[in-house]
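Sorry to interrupt, but I need a hand with the structure work. Go ahead and set the record down below:
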Amino acid sequence: MQTELSLQDAHRTPAQRDDEAMLLVAEMTEIVRNKIGMHEAFAAQVATAVVEGLREVHGTKRIYIPGIDKAKRNAAIRAEFNGRNHAHVMAKYGIGRARLYEIISDKA
C-alpha cells in the first residue's frame, strides 16, 4: 500500500477533517447500497465504521486505491449493452458515448 503524508492535511482544522469524513461516509454509504443492496440506514452504519477505522489506522495519509480491471469492466459493458440502452450503460459505468463505442467495437 502506498501512503504519504500530505502537507495540506497537516493544515486542515479538525472541523475540515470531520467535514471530509462526512463526505466520505456519504460516498461509501452509496457504494454499499449500490453494490450489495443494503438498506440506507444499515449501509450508513457500515460506511461510518469503515471510515472511522480508516481514520484511526491511516489518518492524514494518502492511500493508493487501484482502479478496477478494465478488461473485466469492458466485458461487462459488452455483455450488458443491447444496442438500445446507451444512456443506462454510460451512466452505470461513468463513460461517454465515444468510449462506449470503442469498447463494444473491441478496440478497448
